């Protein structure tokens, strides 16, 4: 069985670069153990359905943080959460995706669910692990084929759901899991009218129930003595943020108030900026400065100075002397870190796979970053060298993150503005602290943002949210590129500088970049619905918006949507947590997204608590190492 024009809609983080790519779906059988697999391969032309010739990185191509990147021969498979990925060594270096394979071992899953043109692979915890979209139809043909082949068995209670039946060669633990699945616990749960605790005596014994729960992975709440009407519904697909079926947030008391009218103000001028500077160099009212920037941006002639404060290179409270001392110290630190990779020997590099792979990726990305702009045009442009050096040094500064495709796009506008290499680096560090979770290997940060965006959409634009849900687009994946690089690919250099400085103020709330997404989508609501766009067409349309979005209009509407939501009485805690408002219910933990950041900050503080003796000793060792290194260069 072979089905063409199949889009990979959802998968684990390991396949994030293949999501929304068109390919072919095969049913294959292992001759040795008789097990069946679904195998998906991207098309030979490597069509990315939600990118418009964006070099394949629109949905983040991460390089593993804490260990060297593992490149496996084509004959090997890397198992990731029951999903197998075959990857040739050439697919990374040459950008080819012809040999990238996603292989799903069916016996390790509970079943398959079909919804319109979508096929979902469901695990034993009722989570959707993999999802395919059939562009030309054919889902019914595949499910019918698998059912005729005795691979699937239709559920008697759950519509459009097929259980994966016993197969030859099933491991013992899989057989145990499948034996419990044969109990059709969910089917029993759905039949509320026939629920009788006496006939389910096995569940009434706490000891037995506990054992069965651990073995069969059945939620404790299911096997409690209470009737089903009191139990939370734990059987819906996917508890992960980007996979769960989103529940539309309803305001029981009020509809949304009328959306206020917002107009933009003039930018912060050089005269205003000088008035905020005290005689000793401090900035007298940082919050007022941020308010002016939020409502109007800054004039280009002072932008370089203002950005240094917004990105924490300069501190608002520092005097001129303190500022100059800090700049000198950070500049020295930058060149010390740069020296680390400049003096790395070839032997070291050969023995450091993670470093070598990141270096290779940086070199490739720099060559294709913003080459249409004069600042980076030409083959021998020295600014390309600066761009590469800063990215290499950041890799040494934060090797846990290292380098991920997309970072060069965040850095380029800062370098265009600053020109100074060290100053650009530290401003880039400040920017990365705001968006570093976008580049997590497990995509946790992106999943949280997509879920938050979906929550806000369900509350602020129910018309569009319902339409997206009906067309299997409620996962908001078409906004991935917007969030990943903060709209860098959607606006001109001039506009992106204005947008970024607005977002860097942190006003009027946390996560205001999500309201930028809401604003753009609000503008396109009627287009999506009137044209009857499907998932694939929405992706294409969103990417076609690049260069066509009116920034000032979008900023006005984004602020208006925020003010409209904030005016709601008894705003749900789930919305409050996203925009940083105090929660109504103290026990609500929906907004606990900042624990990791708090931990990181405490670690930074510990690192800064070096004694003066330690700093002098370290500096002496560094100078000795540099002197020896330089002397050996001339031997």
From TrEMBL:
SUPFAM superfamilies, A to Z: Ypt/Rab-GAP domain of gyp1p
Region of interest called Disordered, as start-end residue ranges on this chain: 237-263, 589-612
Composition skew (Acidic residues), residue ranges: 589-599
Assigned GO CC terms: cytoplasm
Keywords (A to Z) from UniProt: Acetylation, Cytoplasm, GTPase activation, Phosphoprotein
The Rab-GAP TBC domain, residue ranges: 297-507
Keyword Thylakoid: no
Location relative to the cell: Cytoplasm
A Pfam entry, by short name: RabGAP-TBC
Gene Ontology MF terms: GTPase activator activity
Basic and acidic residues bias (residue ranges): 243-258
Subunit composition and interactions: Interacts with non-phosphorylated form of RAB8A; phosphorylation of RAB8A at 'Thr-72' disrupts this interaction. Interacts with ARMC12.
Function: Acts as a GTPase activating protein for RAB7A. Does not act on RAB4, RAB5 or RAB6.
Identification of the protein by name: TBC1 domain family member 15
Source organism of the structure: Corethrella appendiculata
Lineage: Eukaryota, Metazoa, Ecdysozoa, Arthropoda, Hexapoda
């Amino acid at each position: 069985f072979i089905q063409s024009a199949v889009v990979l809609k959802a998968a684990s983080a390991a396949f994030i670069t293949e999501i929304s790519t068109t390919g072919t779906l095969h049913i294959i059988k292992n001759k040795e153990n008789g097990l069946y697999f679904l195998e998906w391969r991207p098309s030979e032309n490597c069509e990315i359905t939600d990118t418009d010739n964006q070099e394949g990185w629109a949905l983040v191509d991460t390089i593993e943080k804490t260990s060297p990147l593992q490149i496996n021969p084509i004959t090997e498979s890397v198992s990731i959460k029951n999903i197998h990925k075959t990857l040739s060594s050439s697919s990374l270096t040459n950008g080819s995706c012809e040999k990238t394979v996603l292989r799903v071992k069916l016996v390790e899953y509970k079943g398959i669910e079909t919804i319109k043109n979508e096929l979902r692979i469901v695990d034993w915890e009722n989570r959707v692990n993999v999802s395919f979209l059939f562009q030309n139809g054919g889902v019914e043909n595949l499910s019918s084929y698998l059912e005729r082949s005795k691979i699937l068995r239709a559920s008697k209670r759950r519509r459009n759901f097929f259980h994966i039946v016993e197969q030859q060669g099933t491991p013992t633990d899989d057989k145990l899991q499948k034996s419990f699945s044969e109990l059709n616990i969910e089917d029993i749960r759905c039949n509320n009218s026939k629920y009788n605790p006496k006939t389910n005596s096995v569940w009434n014994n706490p000891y037995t129930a506990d054992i069965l729960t651990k073995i069969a992975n059945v939620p404790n709440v299911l096997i409690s003595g209470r009737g089903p009407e009191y139990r939370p519904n734990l059987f819906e697909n996917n508890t992960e943020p980007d996979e769960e079926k989103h529940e539309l947030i309803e305001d029981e008391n009020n509809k949304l108030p009328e959306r206020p009218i917002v107009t933009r103000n003039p930018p912060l001028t050089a005269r205003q900026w000088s008035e905020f500077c005290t005689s000793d160099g401090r900035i007298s009212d940082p919050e007022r400065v941020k308010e002016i920037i939020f409502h109007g941006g800054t004039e280009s002639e002072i932008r370089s100075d203002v950005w240094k404060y917004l990105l924490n290179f300069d501190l608002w409270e520092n005097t001129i002397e303190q500022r100059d001392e800090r700049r000198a110290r950070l500049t020295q630190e930058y060149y010390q870190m740069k020296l680390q990779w400049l003096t790395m020997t070839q032997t070291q590099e050969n023995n450091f796979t993670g470093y070598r792979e990141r270096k290779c990726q940086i070199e490739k990305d720099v060559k294709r970053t913003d080459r249409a702009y004069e600042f980076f045009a030409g083959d021998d442009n020295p600014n390309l060298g600066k761009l590469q050096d800063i990215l290499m040094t950041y890799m040494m500064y934060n090797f846990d993150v290292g380098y991920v495709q997309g970072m060069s796009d965040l850095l380029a506008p800062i370098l265009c503005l600053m020109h100074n290499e060290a100053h650009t680096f530290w401003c880039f560090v400040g920017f990365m602290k705001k968006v570093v979770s976008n580049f997590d290997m497990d995509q946790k940060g992106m999943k949280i943002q997509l879920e938050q965006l979906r929550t806000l959409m369900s509350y602020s634009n129910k018309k569009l949210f319902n339409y997206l849900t009906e067309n299997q687009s409620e996962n908001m994946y078409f906004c991935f590129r917007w969030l990943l690089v903060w709209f860098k690919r959607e606006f001109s250099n001039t506009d992106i500088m204005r947008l970024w400085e607005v977002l860097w103020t942190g006003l009027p709330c946390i996560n205001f970049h999500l309201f930028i997404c809401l604003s753009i989508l609000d503008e396109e609501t009627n287009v999506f619905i009137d044209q009857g766009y499907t998932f694939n067409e929405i992706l294409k349309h969103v990417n076609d918006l690049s260069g066509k979005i009116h920034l000032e209009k979008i900023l006005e509407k984004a602020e208006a949507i925020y003010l409209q939501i904030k005016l709601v009485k008894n705003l749900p805690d789930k919305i409050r947590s996203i925009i940083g408002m105090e929660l109504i219910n103290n026990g609500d933990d929906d907004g606990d997204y900042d624990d990791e950041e708090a931990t990181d900050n405490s670690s930074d503080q510990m690192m800064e608590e070096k004694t003066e003796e330690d700093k002098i000793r370290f500096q002496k060792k560094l100078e000795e190492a540099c002197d020896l290194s330089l002397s050996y260069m001339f031997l």
